[in-house]
Amino acid sequence: MRAGAAPDVVRWLLDPRAYPEGERPTRVTLVETHISWLLFAGRVVYKVKKPVDFGFLDFTTLEKRRFYCLEELRLNQRLSPDVYLEVVEIAGEQGRLTVGGTGSVVEYAVKMRALPPDRWLSGLLTRGEASPALMRRIAQRIAAFHASAGAAAGEVGSIDTVRVNTRENFVQTREYVGVTVTAEAHDRVEAYTEAFLGVRAGRFARREHAGRIRDCHGDLHADQICAENGIAFIDCIEFNERFRFSDVAADIAFPAMDVDYYGRPDLSAELIREYVTASGDSGVLDVLDFYKCYRAFTRGKVRGFRLRQADLGEADRRAIVDRASRYFELANAYARLPGRLAVAICGLMGTGKSSLARALAPRLGAEVLSSDVVRKELAGIGPDEPRREAWGEGIYSEAFHARTYETLHQRAAQQLRAGGIVILDASYRDAAWRTRARETARAAGARFLLLEARSPGDVVRQRLAARGAGPSDGRVELLEAQRERFEPPLEIPPEERIIVDTSGAPGEVVKAALGEVYRRQLAEACGETKNPGVVPGF
Predict the structure, then answer these.
(1) pLDDT band at 526, cuts 50/70/90?
(2) How do residues 238-252 score in pLDDT, each as one tens digit?
(3) Helix axes of 201-209 and 159-172: crossing angle, nearest 10 degrees
(4) Is the four-CA dihedral 156, 159, 165, 171 of positive or negative sign?
């Protein structure tokens, strides 16, 4: 950062003469984060808090900055007492400021011992110098810290706190959709998070009752861990208790996630194995991936906040976007549904089946197989070439229907056996075809869901009247004939059936459907499937 972009107090601190005689550096270097200015002055570092308010932290007054400097000192001395030295006043007269000087106090700073720049875990991982032995040392230190950390009191750190923290993440990152995070990744992580918290609430309750909510570090990523003679940890969160008081699993998940980020899942696994051994807390594994996802998303958010800094050069901006995006993609990967899944979307023409399928596909990481496309391929015509044939004739005869569905299911079986997720986009008006789709999924070792798209008649007719060129030949004059022949999907077990009202805003409809898919699949995976509701329109 250019010195000219900093406030007066920071510009004064860039002058070596601002420091005490016995500690006066020959040169001062400034590093800026989204909430602090760090002044590297020889063997010590001075951390000055920015007068900012992000909602989750508020440093806007001098008194608040003093309080949080003292809190930072107190909390970090639990982990690294030889690094966190004291809180100092920055004071002066007649326009000259000095550290620990006389006169009016204009700012406070946390004074720290400078740590060797080549021993940070992030750098060791980047250079390929991190080892399993180092992971074990880090895990042992963290486990010992958690054992000695104070227990939470009241609701802080409970599942309700986790909900507040995660939902705040999604709100605060909306402005970055299309910049550092894709809409698809944002929706997927939100759906996974809400579903996990809802379906697997019992896991969080059991851990809370076991005393696993502690006064933790809260921000243990690889830039905060230094492997010098021992292991030093810095920057414990002082500004918000609901970020610091957490399940110990959330704390150990942060470095485990960051080691994944640097491309070493083997070392991440070693870190977790040693932590479980040292702490005796095997229950960490029940919520580890959830907290890894949360930590990766949070890291992407915080990295993206740096885009708010003034005077960013284009190279710096690109680097911030790239790193934040990679964290969001890691969160997206943690949120992926495990295993094989077939989602059949059925309903009358004009109910938005194909639009829903196209929107769900990237959010589920799925391949869409469309009966309209398969039908025209079998007929030897282009997918957008219209065929305005009467009901039940030509490529819409019963015989051609059967051929189309058989081909559709054969292709689905191939995709599912390869381990993928498939969306089957078809009217599925006959119970026999839906049953066949379900059997195809089961035979391939996949789970099955049926989404029934519904919309009011006037909405359907408006959509059909406005429909342009495309694979579907559905039109208003065929609607009633299809409606008369549509068999309600009552043969599908209720826990595998979701009704989707597609009459609302497309984005909200997709998010609601995605959330219900996640809820059903996570519930089935842990044996907690309950009777379905209806996904409402908006």
Answers:
(1) low
(2) 999 999 999 999 999
(3) 130
(4) negative
Rounded Cα–Cα distance for residues 487 and 532 (Å): 20
Spatial separation of the C-alpha atoms in residues 1 and 82, rounded to whole Å: 29
With CA atoms as reference, report the closest residue to 420 among 338, 502, 520, 497. Answer: 338
What percentage of the chain exceeds 70 in pLDDT?
A: 93
Bridge-based pairing of strands 36-41 and 29-32 is: antiparallel
Residue 501: enclosing H or E segment and its boundaries?
A: strand 497-501
- The rounded distance, in Å, linking the Cα atoms of 354 and 369 is 10
Question: Tokens 């060129």 correspond to what residue?
Answer: 469
Task: Reduce the DSSP state of residue 228 to 3 states and report it.
Answer: coil
Q: CA-based angle 529:427:195, to the nearest 5?
A: 25
Least confident of 41-45, 116-120, 264-268, 503-507: 503-507
CA 23/CA 16 separation, integer angstroms: 9
442 close to 493: Cβ distance less than 8 angstroms: no
Q: Taking a C-beta distance cutoff of 8 angstroms, is the pair 47, 36 a contact?
A: yes
Q: What is the mean pLDDT of residues 362-373?
A: 95
Q: How confident is the model at residue 350 (pLDDT cuts 50, 70, 90)?
A: confident
In this structure, which amino acid lies at residue 196? F
Is residue 536 over pLDDT 70? Answer: no
Q: How far is CA 527 from CA 207, 464, 522, in A?
A: 19, 41, 9
pLDDT tens for 442-485 read: 999 999 999 999 988 788 878 777 765 556 655 576 777 778 78
Alpha-carbon distance of 387 to 473, in angstroms, equals 6
Q: pLDDT of 30-46, one tens digit each?
A: 998 889 999 999 999 99
- Which of 464, 466, 491 has its CA nearest to residue 480? 464
Which residues fall within 8 angstroms of residue 520, CB to CB, at 6 or more apart? 449, 495, 496, 498, 529, 532
Q: How many CB atoms lie within 10 A of CB 230?
A: 10
One-letter-per-residue 3-state SS of 69-124: HHHHHHHHCCCCCCCEEEEEEEEEECCEEEECCCCEEEEEEEEEECCCCCCEHHHH
Distance separating alpha carbons of residues 302 and 288, to the nearest angstrom? 21
